[in-house]
Amino acid sequence: MIFNIQRYSTHDGPGIRTVVFLKGCSLGCRWCQNPESRSREKELLYDARLCLQDCNLCQQAAPEVIEKTLSGLLIFRDRIETRHIAALEHICPTLALTVCGEEKNLEEIMAVVRRDQPFYQRSSGGITLSGGEPFMAPQLAAEIFKQSHEEGIHTAVETCLHVPWHYIEPSLPYVDLFLADLKHVNDQVFKQWTDGSAKRVMENLRKLAAAGKKIIIRVPLIQGFNADKISIAAIVDFSADVLAVNDIHFLPYHTLGMNKYVLLNQPYHAPDKPLEDPELLSFAQSYAEHKGLTVTLRG
């Protein structure tokens, strides 16, 4: 189950890339900017701004779950099940209702990836699997990486590494670059904000480093969670001293994904303002450079 294939990307690995976004994640990060990626199943998104007041096609298609108010807004009265989503998938003329998630097999995905091979060759680009967590679909991930590798396409993965190691291992021979999140090294804090285990992530990072894989550490900086000097220093120390990586990216928190929670009718539990702390970012850069890392600050 995927939710997007983005071509001509320049932010998800070197060169021009095709990014395949897989649905399903093992974490519940409070600040997640792609909440539509968490579930493995198709989901219904509703944008009230596009809804036509006099239209009732969706009510006719799924009357047991959809009610329309006098003002023309939709109310979802019950749990949206797979059968409802199937009935609603192509019903809305204005796309106020859209379905996130599409089943594609290996060949369908690779057909899209192959279209841009000349761009990969000229820019040293390739394919990146993202999500969600790509390794939540370990067989498909390994098949995509293996096929791409055999066709001479550079491979990268954006991953939180919060999966059993045997989910990752089949892909190891075919992944050229791991863009790996390291959100925190304190297990208790990590658990409170992500519902996961920092120990699992760090152990998988150790195994990747021991396997000699190319790793770029990515650190989303979230106020109240890890946007402080002590947390940043601990992350940098682990990256430099234990993993011996060369590159680290700091990603200051932004709120560009907030509206997606509205579309999904889900609460948003992260800060409502972006991180604006030049002094802290300066510390992060200088400390990481002092530890011998190449630093990238991404807006």
From TrEMBL:
User: Which keywords label this protein?
Assistant: 4Fe-4S, Iron, Iron-sulfur, Metal-binding, Oxidoreductase, S-adenosyl-L-methionine
InterPro entries registered for this protein in UniProt: Aldolase_TIM, BssD/PflA/YjjW, Organic_radical-activating, Organic_radical_activase, Radical_activat_CS, rSAM, rSAM_sf
- Please state which protein family the record places this protein in: Belongs to the organic radical-activating enzymes family.
Q: Has UniProt tagged this entry with the keyword Metal-binding?
A: yes
A Pfam family assignment: Radical_SAM
Ranges for domain Radical SAM core: 11-298
GO terms (molecular function) for this protein are: 4 iron, 4 sulfur cluster binding; metal ion binding; oxidoreductase activity
Q: What is this protein called?
A: Glycyl-radical enzyme activating protein
The source's domain of life comes to Bacteria
**Cofactors, names only:** [4Fe-4S] cluster
